[in-house]
Amino acid sequence: MTYTLYTEATPNPLKVLIMLEELGAQYKSVKVDFGKEEQKTPEFLKINPNGRIPVLVDHDANDFIVIESGAILQYLAEKHKTLMPTDPKEKSEVTQWLMWQMGGLGPMFGQLLVFAAAFENTIPEATNRYHTETRRLLSVLDTRLEGRSFLADEYSIADVASMAWMGPVERVGWDMADWPNVKAWFDRCMSRPAYAKAIEALGDLPEDVRMSTFRKATVGLGS
Q1: Which of the listed residues 71, 173, 174, 182 has the most CB atoms within 10 Å of its CB?
Q2: What's the pTM?
Q3: Any bridge partners for residue 3, and if so which?
Q4: pLDDT digit string (tens) for 145-160?
């Protein structure tokens, strides 16, 4: 099975790369250069009118396009019948924690990075708001993982979604030890071969280039 993934070195595409590596799927990564605003070109907007990454193209399904990282994870899990239970209650549990990440942890962490890094904390009220809420969400995650190996009964796309957003914890200067259950869970997730392969496939940017690109792509600052 062959896929094309439009990506950049950020957490949401990392989710999909982890999933593709878990599947052992054949795929090609196409980097979208935010610094050059390639996500705003007519060519890319034909693929995703929302102008965001990741985007998955399934070449075995007549080039079917899937946007939004959570939707991509669900599509792949259901197509390949893995990392998603079939029992309605168990499936709901996985979906609940996938939606929790999509609607909470990811957006809040993203906004924290905008105001703490891109705006260089020039709006302290906003920075403090996202700082407090992101730490609260990490505490929710820590509570959920008390006595659990994974977010649901078994490793699933819910874990894939949240684990991809653990990198920014240290980037904002926090110690993962503040959330011991999260740390143990993340270590467990990182030990899976798919994680290391996905990190390698994602690539990375030097911090100054990362933030310059981040500013231009998200808030229109810098070059």
Answers
A1: 182
A2: 0.91
A3: 27, 58
A4: 999 999 999 999 999 9
